[in-house]
Design brief:
The chain is an alpha/beta fold. The protein is built from 5 helices and 6 strands; from the N terminus they run E-H-E-H-E-H-E-H-E-E-H. The structure holds 5-nitro-6-ribityl-amino-2,4(1H,3H)-pyrimidinedione (INI).
Length: about 160
């Protein structure tokens, strides 16, 4: 029984990590494909381990991270998916236009989600070196693709409750 001076508890809304019946699109940038393929495998692993099904996943490859937003936006607008998971690897060592590629990818992915209301998840590695990217693609720093898919599952469920 509540005591006289007890403060009321807040109503907490949060997502459950159950991907059963959820439909996902994954957009993957082919540039640095060896790394991005590991992110894709990580994302699929998360979806499966949280009760999702490969039959509910569509994988779309685009040339590089710069092209992810236009494909992500179209997938969001199709209303066929509960979330769109964007995966890529932009490595500063590779290019003088790192900031443009990484910046446009981040901005465009955010706009696709905000403009459509479909959770559009930023799973693009932006690192100084190839080694740092490898560390985040299933070696000592985990797998950013797994994390991105887990975030997608969380967001689908929490948005359904709002
Ligand atoms: N695309 C990436 O996904 N990662 C990179 O590291 C990268 N570098 O280094 O240039 C990259 N460039 C290609 C870019 O995404 C576009 O595909 C290209 O500019 C054509 O629009």
């Amino acid at each position: 029984m509540a005591k006289k001076n007890d403060k009321p508890a807040p109503r907490v809304i949060e997502g459950q990590l159950n991907a059963q019946g959820m439909r996902f699109a994954i957009v993957a940038g082919r540039f640095n494909e060896l790394i991005v393929d590991k992110l894709v495998q990580g994302a699929l692993d998360s979806i499966r381990r949280h009760g999702g099904n490969d039959h509910e996943v569509t994988l779309v490859w685009v040339p590089g991270a710069f092209e992810i937003p236009v494909a992500a936006r179209k997938l969001c607008e199709s209303r066929k998916y509960d979330a769109v998971i964007c995966l890529g690897a932009v490595v500063r060592g590779n290019t003088p236009h790192f900031d443009y590629v990484a910046g446009e990818a981040a901005k465009g992915i955010a706009q696709a989600g905000l403009g459509t209301g479909v959770p559009c998840i930023f799973g693009v590695l932006t690192t100084e070196t190839l080694e740092q990217a490898i560390e985040r693609a299933g070696t000592k720093m985990g797998n950013k693709g797994f994390d991105a898919a887990t975030t997608a599952i969380d967001m689908v469920d929490v948005l359904r409750k709002l």
